[in-house]
Structure of TRAP dicarboxylate transporter subunit DctP:
Amino acid sequence: MRLTVKTLAATTAITLGLAASAQAQTIRLAHVDPDEWTGSKKGAAAQIFKNIVEGETDMTVELFPAGALGNEDELVGQAQDGTLQMALVSGAMSKACPAAGVLDIPYTFSSAPVAWEVLDGEFGDALAEHCLEETGLRTLAYGETGFRNFTNSEREITSPADMEGLKFRVQPIPLYIEMVEALGGEPTPIAWTELPNALSTGVVDGQENPVGVIYNNGLHQLQQYMTLDGHVYAADFFVMSDEFFQSLEPAQQEVVQKAADVASTMGRAIQQWNTAEGVKLVQEEGMQVYSPTADEIQAFADAAQPAVIEYLRGELGEQAEWIDRLQEAVSAASEG
């Protein structure tokens, strides 16, 4: 009898051990930003996500920053095919889920708090559900890449008329080409890695990016003027393979969701810090920075929005309702 009891106890211990091992999961999380958290919103978000998940579950989070596993388009694909469990991406999401492109309609968000209210509310939830159906990726939370602003080496820009004749580097995304054309500039799609040389050699006169990106990559040293028009608010998408998420225990899912919520808040805070600090630093290093008035911003919006919205309606087809849903959500958030 003693041998039987001991055998049963040993068998039970092995079984429990195997079950615990089976429940242990590894989350491979990748992004294209630097890992250093004080200057990188995705880097900060990824690290705090890792700390919370590993501190409150038996799961392990492996981080792959700085494009170690590829560009954003590749990371989205890897999350879809299960090579990755999670990715932090921005612009690439609209390629996988076209409806997400409505967030890039220029001059949609008047401030970051308005954007946060929209993304963290009913509209953001609905967009996340739609993109889940389209891609198989669950948007756990929305972070922030920041407001994009124009810089150039020729003159101060206070109105669309000042952009006429200037060549601006843009991402190879049709929406950005439409926007710059509508504002009177000459859009020139150029890869990010080629931008410094294009500015140095005069291939383009200017470019557009968030302030932190401009400063941290030394673009302010190649440009004389910056206009804080905030034409596009760029959001980060915290996406996870839904197949992987559904494989987790409810308690694990709860921690993962909480960690993503905290991480998105952390990323937003770091981005806000980088913007405020970046504006001060570029000015200290000789860049002329102009902040348009509300009326001037409206003039930019009046010039850019119609062309971009018309383009998007054509691209989205039956999904063009997302344009109207976003505008309604922004209007409600702005009034609140």
Notes: The chain has one domain: 24-335. Residues 20 and 58 are 9 Å apart (CA to CA). The first strand starts at residue 26 and ends at 30. The chain is about 50% helix and 20% strand.
